[in-house]
Design goal:
alpha+beta; 40% helix; 4-stranded antiparallel beta sheet; 333 residues
């Protein structure tokens, strides 16, 4: 791992009870840190606990939240939303123009309350190892978090806001999924907190949600890092969206805010080789103990300069120009 700047937060010691739940294998190894070859991601947290090494730790995390009445109530409400049955798929498959269908799906999601909508064909390298997945298309959705609640991180109020927005992610995904099924095509909504078969993060980058930040979360030109993802998987042919690059990666290269704010020194100053790609990476083995005992932490995205309301568009405009000058000083492109 790269050398880190020392943070100014008091040292954190995880509870013995939590550490007893950790497997012998490093989470960084599971994630593929240092691997030169490309491969699918391995399951690590937020999957069926019986199918991944950190399953006992995951169960311990849920147990801690269940001991908090307000958080437990919000999780219960979320599960009710998740459990809502989907309508049956219509017997007759209607032929729909991909462009028209894409516009219709985007409008349904926005009308339901989504703040971001993107469409992208599924790539095999996004599917977690061990899953059978045959949907060719994904609709990625983003829902904005309340900054004032997020800013309380690592207090439980920030964790409750995360639960609320994961719930809302399911809500905004269902109208599009229902519409697709009514046309005779398969569609399945997917929201948090469990990861499901596909890593949504690279898909969200590919469909224009933004760039990966040093803190391991996306940075969007409108919302910064204060949003959560959900999705709709489908076999309905659609029209893909493209990437959106606006200089966030260059900004992160020089920014130290999340590095210094991290209580456990989990955020590095340099990119790391992960499954064949040099990228920003948060040390799983350093991050997760604190994350597990603070009901989700979220300090890094709360302090991110891009997350402040109305700040991201200003930064995006400025850093687009800076990035263009840096990468094309002669103005040839």
């Amino acid at each position: 791992m790269s050398k880190r700047s020392p943070n100014r937060v008091s040292p954190f010691t995880p509870s013995p009870e939590q550490m007893a739940c950790w497997p012998d294998i490093s989470g960084n190894k599971i994630n593929g840190v240092g691997e030169a070859g490309m491969r699918r991601p391995s399951r690590i947290m937020w999957h069926d606990p019986d199918t991944q090494p950190h399953g006992q730790l995951q169960n311990w995390f849920w147990k801690q939240g269940a001991n908090q009445p307000e958080l437990r109530e919000k999780r219960t409400e979320r599960q009710k939303v998740i459990n809502v049955e989907l309508p049956p798929i219509a017997d007759e498959k209607q032929q729909v123009d991909p462009a028209d269908a894409s516009d219709r799906i985007r409008q349904l999601a926005l009308d339901a309350g989504a703040d971001l909508v993107g469409i992208i064909p599924v790539q095999d390298e996004w599917v977690f190892e061990g899953y059978d997945f045959d949907y060719p298309w994904m609709v990625i959705l983003g829902v904005a978090m309340d900054f004032d609640k997020l800013a309380t991180a690592p207090e439980i109020t920030a964790g409750m806001e995360v639960v609320d927005k994961y719930t809302y992610g399911w809500v905004v995904a269902r109208p599009a999924a229902n519409w697709i099924r009514s046309r005779g095509w398969r569609a399945e909504p997917k929201g948090g907190p469990l990861a499901g078969p596909v890593n949504l993060l690279p898909a969200a980058i590919e469909c224009g949600f933004g760039e990966l930040g040093k803190h391991g979360s996306l940075i969007n030109r409108q919302l910064g890092s204060r949003f959560r993802l959900s999705a709709v998987f489908t076999d309905l042919p659609l029209v893909a969206d493209g990437e959106d690059r606006f200089g966030a990666d260059d900004f992160c290269a020089g920014c130290q805010v999340c590095v210094r704010a991290c209580p456990v020194d989990a955020i590095g100053n340099d990119k790391v080789l992960v499954r064949g790609e040099h990228k920003w990476y948060v040390d799983f083995d350093r991050c997760m103990p604190y994350f597990a005992e603070t009901f989700g932490c979220a300090i890094c995205i709360a302090v991110c300069p891009w997350s402040k309301p109305d700040r991201a568009p200003v930064l995006a405009d400025r850093w687009t120009r800076i990035s263009q000058r840096r990468h094309d000083p002669d103005g040839r492109n």
